[in-house]
Amino acid sequence: MESLERFEQNHRVIEEFAAQWLAPIAGDIGRLCYVSDLRNVSTGRYSHPPLEQAYSQPAVHEALLCCHEELFEKVLEQPLQQQERDLRAFLAGIDSPAEEIARRWQEVEFFRQLVPFGAPHYLRDLFLSNLRIILDLVVGEGTKIRTAA
Questions:
Q1: How confident is the model at residue 142 (pLDDT cuts 50, 70, 90)?
Q2: Domain carrying residue 101
């Protein structure tokens, strides 16, 4: 019976998190960035103080891990063109030119943070390859615009 109660609690946490914090974020890559920022990369633990006021930290961690994995897989299920549109829309919402952000992401390989711990290697490699290609396009486009001006 304990596993059923745990499942129901995780379901409630996920529903609340998705409705209140994920729904306002445009695009799956934006949501993926948000969820991955809730993870402490040193400990692997997810934390969300507003949710932890209503639910236990272990329940929040488990629910956010599940959300991270689901969003990661959802992004990978999209065609590369959709992933590109999604990333471009996300970058456009940041107060800095997209090509500068893309260049920084390439330099520090920030996009690696978006992969959930324990993701299968083949999915991780596909995701990282896709992001590298898209970031190259964004950086190259910015270079073309500067040289044309």
A1: low
A2: 2-148
- Looking at residues 18-40, what average pLDDT do you find? 95
Token pair for residue 112?
């690696």
Angle 80-92/121-148 helices, nearest 10 degrees? 60
* Closest listed residue to residue 98, CA positions, set 148, 129, 144: 144
Per the structure, the count of domains in the chain is 1
With contact defined as beta carbons under 8 Å apart, do 86 and 108 qualify? Answer: no
Q: Whole-structure pTM over 0.85, yes or no?
A: yes
Distance between CA atoms of 26 and 107, rounded to whole angstroms?
Answer: 25
CA distance 24 to 21: 6
Give the chain as a 3 state SS string: CHHHHHHHHHHHHHHHHHHHHHCCCCCHHHHHHHHHHCECCCCCCECCHHHHCCCCHHHHHHHHHHHHHHHHHHHHHCCHHHHHHHHHHHHHCCCCCHHHHHHHHHHHCHHHHHCCCCCCHHHHHHHHHHHHHHHHHHHHHHHHHHHHC
Q: Which amino acid does the sequence have at 98?
A: A
Q: Give residues with Cβ within 8 angstroms of 80, minimum separation 6.
A: 130, 133, 134
